[in-house]
Structures are given as structure tokens and as C-alpha cells.
Fold Fructose-1,6-bisphosphatase class 1.
Amino acid sequence: MSVRCTSLGQFIKEAQNQGCIDEELAALIESVAHACTSIATVVAQGTLATTDGVATEINVQGEAQKPIDVLTNAIMLETCERSGALRGMVSEEMAEPYSLPPGSPRGRHLLVFDPLDGSSNVELNMPFGTIFSVLRAPEDAGELLPAHFLQRGRQQLAAGFALYGAATMLVLTLGAGVHGFTLDRTTGTFLLTHPDLRIAETTCEFAVNASNERFWEPPVRRYVEECIEGRAGPRRIDFNMRWIAAMVAEVHRILLRGGLFMYPRDRKVPARPGRLRLLYEASPMAMLVEQAGGAASTGREPILDIVPEVIHQRVPVILGSREEVERLVRYHEIFDRGEALVFRTPLFNTRTLFQADANEAEGLPCR
Ligand SMILES: O=P(O)(O)OC[C@H]1O[C@](O)(COP(=O)(O)O)[C@@H](O)[C@@H]1O
Ligand SMILES: [Mg+2]
Ligand SMILES: [Mg+2]
């Protein structure tokens, strides 16, 4: 059978036969894929899918909750609670964990998701997606508690996202590589079109919301400044920049052609350390990126090592091609040791001896 003919169902069955996943997890992944197919059908209707695109509520994040956020959340809940694989779910759109209704078949897993990532793109007909992560439920089957979801990213059993673009794709890891499936709309089946995705180790493309530059910490400012200086700067290479405003689409691009994505720590909202949520944005994406040979860090620790404190916790995110993430981590280390990070200011364009030496002294490759 050619690779292009392998369906998601066959792929999951094969993983089950090889002992990589059990029957319950297989059923859960099928349910998530089914939910994403339903969401793809709904969002393909564009603004016709909901009566209006105006925010109705403020969610637990303090962000405007649009009708399409509510609708996609309901599709995820209703489809996945029937899988027989779940004890409960956490969603970006719900303040508390969701317990299965009485009588629903129960299982030993927890599902965590962002039903619509990049919701500001919806009314623009630009790409957005759904992010999900699967955790093991604790053995004791008592009342479902938020604490049950507070597991390190390394404990994820599976993670992935659906991208609703011109084509709908499901990108998945079961802990052994990353595989991309494209929805065949004629049959409603996901087909394996991108097996074993690997992130290029080096890149000259980065993605960051540069309008936040004044709120960043010095290591991030130095990194971006060096990229922007291009061939004339210490990196000696011209970089390209992208910003789609949907993490799903940024990570998808990075899986296909390398790159760096970050939503770093900033001082824009001093009370929060980052914009993206750990459990259902940063952790699943970090698992995918690591499984594809890339790296994912806050700048100070690997995202997958963070022990969550609350279910809607936010963290800084820097992920993608390994060499670039490692460079940013080194810049954070230099800064945290109290050593100066010197900038060439655009106004005076000064190149200090320290900066020229610093690159060589740290062994940073000047390309
Ligand atoms: O362009 P901005 O406003 O900085 O925000 C973009 C970021 O916000 C997000 O859309 C947040 O996700 P939600 O749409 O789920 O709130 C990320 O996907 C993206 O990286
Ligand atoms: Mg999101
Ligand atoms: Mg969202």
C-alpha cells in the first residue's frame, strides 16, 4: 500500500498492533479526528457558520469569546465524551474541568484542548486550528479535580493539531515521530500525506509579533535585532520574518520548512509571564516540535519540564529549529548571569567591541 493511501484509521490500528497505544487511546484519537472533521465542515461556511461574529462573552482568560469559539468547544466536548476513553476535559473556553455527564462511558484518559487557536483569523478567512493533548487520568476514580490535569508536558501520551486552511490537516504525535494527514473531503477521511516530519536544525526564518518589541527582555531583543541586521550584522545572513497570528499555522510551517516561533515573556501585561497557555497550547506544540527533532523552551527551561500550577497557566514560548532555540537559551543565560547584552542601536549603528567579541567568545556561529 502506498503511503498516500494510508488512512488515519489504518495508521492508528497499526500503532495499536505494535503496542504503541491501547484501544482506548486509539478510540480517543479517532474521536478527536472526527470532531476536527466536523469543525472543518462548520468553519468552511465562513461567517455563515454562526449568526454573527461579534463577541458575546468574556472567557476565563479575560478574552472575548466569539460564537465560533463556543460552537467549536461544544463540538469537541460532545464528540469526544462519547469515545469511552475519557475521565474529563479541560478547554481554553471553560473555567473549570469538564466532567462527563452521568451515564457517559468512562475511560482512563484526560483531554486538554484549545478548540479554536487563532480565532482572530476566522472572520478574515485566514488559517486557524484546534490544538489537543492527551494525558493519563490518575488511577483513583474519585471526583475530577483540576489537579489531575497538572502534569508535565513529558507525560503527554499524544498531542496534535488540526489546521483549517485551504486544506484541512491533522498533525499528530503518539510519542514516536510526527505525522501529517490531509482531509480527503470526498470521503471524509484523513490520509497520511506527510509521514515522519522533521524540523530543519538551522533556519533563517523567524516569527514573532514585533509590535511587542518594547516589552521584551534583552535576550529576545538582541536575538531579533541580530536577525533584522541580516547580512550586515553578526549573523551574516539575511533573515525572513512571518506572522500569521495563529500558533497552529506557525508551527505547521516550521514542521514543513523549519523556522523559529516565539511568544516570549514580555512586560505588556506585567501580571502574566507569557501570552500562550501551557496545557493546551505550549505543551502539545512542544511535544510535536521535540518529536520532530526541534526544541521548545521558555528561554529558561524546556517547556515539557514545567510542572503546571494551574490549568490555565501561561508561559513564554520559544520553539522550532534547534540551533535557533539554543541560541536564544544562551542569550537568556548570559543575561541572567548579569552580563551585558550590548545592542547596536538603529540610531547610531554602533558596533561595540564587546558585541563583536561576545559572538566569538561564546562560540556562536557567525554565518
Ligand atoms: O497576533 P497576536 O495578537 O500577538 O496573537 C497571536 C497569538 O494569539 C493566539 O491566537 C492565541 O490563541 P487563541 O486564538 O486560542 O486565543 C496564538 O495562536 C497566536 O500566536
Ligand atoms: Mg490558542
Ligand atoms: Mg482559542
Observations:
- The chain is about 30% helix and 20% strand.
- The longest helix spans residues 23-43.
